[in-house]
Amino acid sequence: KGTEKLTSEIKERYGSAAGYLCDITNLQEVENVGKKVVKEVGEVTIVVNNAGILQNVLFTDLDPAKIKKTLEVNVLSHFWV
């Protein structure tokens, strides 16, 4: 619902916008959404990847799963998008 609301607000103010959701840590999902975007709206001139997470624990308390998720969202997703 947040994406729909934001997209609607941008359309009202600037005339056009499109919002798409996907799991940015999943390369296949990102590629599928990218193809859908190009098919529906054409060439993309601006992409906003505003994703990021923070594990609210001491560095020494991070377990491998939290480290992996943090790197996937904060680093790898920017390459996928």
TrEMBL record:
Any Pfam family matching the protein: adh_short
Q: Which InterPro entries match?
A: NAD(P)-bd_dom_sf, SDR_fam
Keyword check for Transport: no
Q: Which UniProt keywords apply?
A: Oxidoreductase
What is a single molecular function from GO for this protein? oxidoreductase activity, acting on the CH-OH group of donors, NAD or NADP as acceptor
Q: Does the keyword Oxidoreductase apply?
A: yes
- State the Gene3D superfamilies in the record: NAD(P)-binding Rossmann-like Domain (3.40.50.720)
**Cellular component, GO annotation:** lipid droplet
Family to which this protein belongs: Belongs to the short-chain dehydrogenases/reductases (SDR) family.
Q: What is this protein called?
A: 17-beta-hydroxysteroid dehydrogenase 13
Q: Which organism is it from?
A: Nephila pilipes (Giant wood spider)
Q: What is the lineage of its organism?
A: Eukaryota, Metazoa, Ecdysozoa, Arthropoda, Chelicerata
